[in-house]
Structures are given as C-alpha cells and as structure tokens.
Amino acid sequence: MRMPRAIIALTLAAAVAGCSDIGLRHLEAPGPGPDEFSVMPVKPLTQPKDYAFLPAPTPGGANLTDPNPNADAVAALGGNPGALNPGTGIPSSDGALVTASSRYGVSPNTRQVLAQEDADFRKRQSRWTRLRLFKVDRYSQVYKRNAIDPQVQTEALRRQGVETPSSPPDE
Questions:
Q1: At residue 83, what are phi and psi to the nearest 5 degrees?
Q2: Nearest one of 138, 131, 130 to 14, comparing CA atoms
C-alpha cells in the first residue's frame, strides 16, 4: 500500500513542478545582495578652465558627470561619440542604411510579434520543456536545430577560397 502512495506523491510533485514558466534560461542572482551590473558610476567632477565662460544651465538637460553608456562604449572602441544621432543611438553615417532598410515600413510591435512567434516555436519544439524536476538551462536544447556550427561554416568558406584568419576553437 505504501508503494502506490509514493508513486502518487512523485507524480503530483512532477505535475506541480511543470506548472512554472521561468523561460529557457534559468538564471538566479547569487544572493540577496544588490546587482553590481545595475550600478552606473558617475564620471569624476572636473574644474572648468575658465569660470567666466560656463554654459547656461539647462533644466532637464544632461550633466557632464552623468553616465552615457552608449557614447562611452563608442569612445572606448575608438569611435566618435558625437556621431550618434541624439535619442536614436544610430550613427549619422548609417542614416542611409536605416532609411533603406525601413523603406517598406517598420512595425511598431516587432518585439511583441517576435516574442509570440518564439513562444509558439518553443511550444512546437518541445512539449515537455515545462516539466522540470531540477533547475536546468533548456535554451541550447530547444534551439539546437537553429544553431550555426562555426566549424562547418569555416570549412565551407575555406573550400570557397575565402580567407578565414581566425576561427573558434573546435570543442
């Protein structure tokens, strides 16, 4: 009589474990502390060269010590942070490319459409993805068919005569 109860209890535990939807990537914070990646340090204060020629304050405007991660990344990579269009994050040199790629219109709900298509894809790929007794990362399992094998691509390019000076290591 004890064996059927144990089987019922395990079945019930598996059914309850399958009710959660945490997505494909199961990532948890290592502890209750703050997330160090969400803290953006401000730039150090500097003295102007001449106090007589200070710009007029602009209410709601940017401060010289405010962090600007996009412009800082562009500058760190050797680019010109002043070439970014304000508010768009698109370099002015890429304006023609953006115009050409959006000539047939831009859907305002692209992210929602892609999220729904991805959810449908995951549902078709694996009916048992939600059933988890242990914490696992299902991302690579679900998208295995869509992954590009770098070794196969490198060999195909080399056969075509394309120079490939570096390639990812073969695992």
A1: -85, -5
A2: 131
- Give the closest residue to 139 by CA, choosing from 153, 152, 125, 151: 125
Question: How big, in percent rounded to 5, are the helix, strand and coil portions of the chain?
Answer: 45, 0, 55
Tell which residue, 46, 50, 80, has the closest CA to residue 63: 46
What is the spatial distance between Cα 54 and Cα 66, in angstroms, rounded to a whole number?
17
Q: Distance (Å, rounded) from C-alpha 47 to C-alpha 64?
A: 11
Q: Which residues contact 164 (CB under 8 A, 6 or more apart)?
A: 154, 157, 158
Ordered by start, the domain boundaries in the chain are 109-163
CA distance 101 to 124: 31
Q: What is the pLDDT, as a whole number, of residue 160? A: 94
Question: Alpha-carbon Rg of the chain, whole angstroms?
Answer: 26
* Cα distance between residue 43 and residue 45, in whole Å: 7
**pLDDT for 83-106, tens place per residue?**
665 656 677 778 888 888 888 888
Q: Is there a contact between 138 and 18 (Cβ–Cβ < 8 Å)? A: no
